[in-house]
Amino acid sequence: DVQMTQSPSTLSASVGDTVTITCRASRGISYWLAWYQQKPGKAPKLLIYEASRLQSGVPSRFRGSGAATEFTLTISSLQPDDFATYYCQQYNFYWTFGQGTRVDLK
Amino acid sequence: EVQLEESGGALVQPGGSLRLSCAASGFTLNNYGMNWVRQAPGKGPEWVSHISSEGIRIYYRDSVKGRFTISRDHAENSVFLQMNSLRVEDTAVYYCARDRSEVIDYWGQGTLVTVSS
Predict the structure, then answer these.
(1) Contacts with A89 from chain B: Cβ below 8 Å
(2) Cβ contact (<8 Å) for B103 and A46?
(3) In 3-state terms, what secondary structure has residue B31?
(4) A3: nearest CA in chain B?
(5) pLDDT in tens, A25-62
(6) Which among B44, B104, B106 has CB closest to A99?
(7) How sure is the predictor about A92, in pLDDT bands with cuts at 50, 70 and 90?
(8) Chain-chain contact of B95 with A43 (C-beta, under 8 angstroms)
(9) From CA B39, how far away is CA B76, in angstroms rounded?
(10) With bands split at pLDDT 50, 70 and 90, how would you rate the model's confidence at B50?
């Protein structure tokens, strides 16, 4: 199994800040990684796939990078709508999610 | 517009069975792999099962192998999850989710399965 570890678990930020979330895979997954945003009571929403490709309709302030075992999601100029929980997910060997990073208002 | 609508969630006793359904619309179901993903209260999502577009490749997470069965019916534009021998730890919101080349891109709104005596 491939384990996914995100850090931090919680991140406090203000509108306009730039935030970065890190995701580590327990073994190399090439660039088969996606990022999702989830709000309370809602289904996850795809933001990024193949580590850095932006899903259609997702604002360009979301940027993904990395390969192999180290990945990051950067949100530039944080907007009120961005306060949510973010999950990374590998799809190189079945599908595994990280434990999530909650971005809340400082 | 892609839409996925789950149904069939309920309160069931340990050892019981449920059949979840997912009605798909807004896209050609034949062309996509489909998945069930669950999320226990306060936890992250957990992939449960996948069925390929043609229905030939089927995968399950280890904890549900032998208990859950995924299937699809293109004529009904639907995907199903038969869940037997349910355990307390199967309690979760179950999402139906589409994948294109293994990228899970659309999710339904979920159906709640509660396993409790």
Answers:
(1) 45, 104
(2) yes
(3) helix
(4) B46
(5) 999 999 999 999 999 999 999 999 999 999 999 999 99
(6) B44
(7) very high
(8) yes
(9) 26
(10) very high
